[in-house]
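Practice problem 4.
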């Protein structure tokens, strides 16, 4: 079985949104590989251009992965206009603020992708 695509653009209410999908991931090596791929994709974008949804629903990871997430978030920061996160429960609630502080990014947390998409689309109409 091949891994599914982990980063793509979706158009929602006319707004282009970058989805970074880490749902259902528990294997450390696969998460690290996905982080590298999504980070490379993100850094190929123009500065301050991306509206993002990072979905970590049903995923689990250790401190090594958390450190890699911090590094990826910081590396991606120059390319991000606004960030949202979905699936932030349990220990992830503790780790996300650390990632945000380290990377200089602010993440708005939502219960669902649709809520995150709505918020990001509202930003696009205010620009």
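Answer key:
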């Amino acid at each position: 079985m091949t891994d599914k695509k982990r980063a793509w653009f979706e158009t929602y209410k006319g707004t282009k949104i970058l989805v970074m999908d880490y749902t259902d991931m528990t294997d450390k090596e696969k998460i690290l590989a996905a982080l590298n791929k999504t980070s490379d994709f993100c850094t190929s974008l123009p500065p301050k251009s991306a509206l993002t949804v990072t979905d970590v629903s049903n995923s689990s990871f250790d401190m090594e992965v958390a450190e890699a997430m911090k590094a990826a978030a910081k590396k991606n920061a120059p390319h991000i206009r606004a960030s949202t996160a979905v699936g932030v429960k349990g220990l992830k609630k503790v780790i996300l603020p650390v990632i945000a502080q380290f990377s200089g990014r602010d993440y708005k947390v939502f219960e669902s992708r649709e809520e995150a998409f709505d918020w990001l689309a509202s930003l696009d109409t205010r620009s």
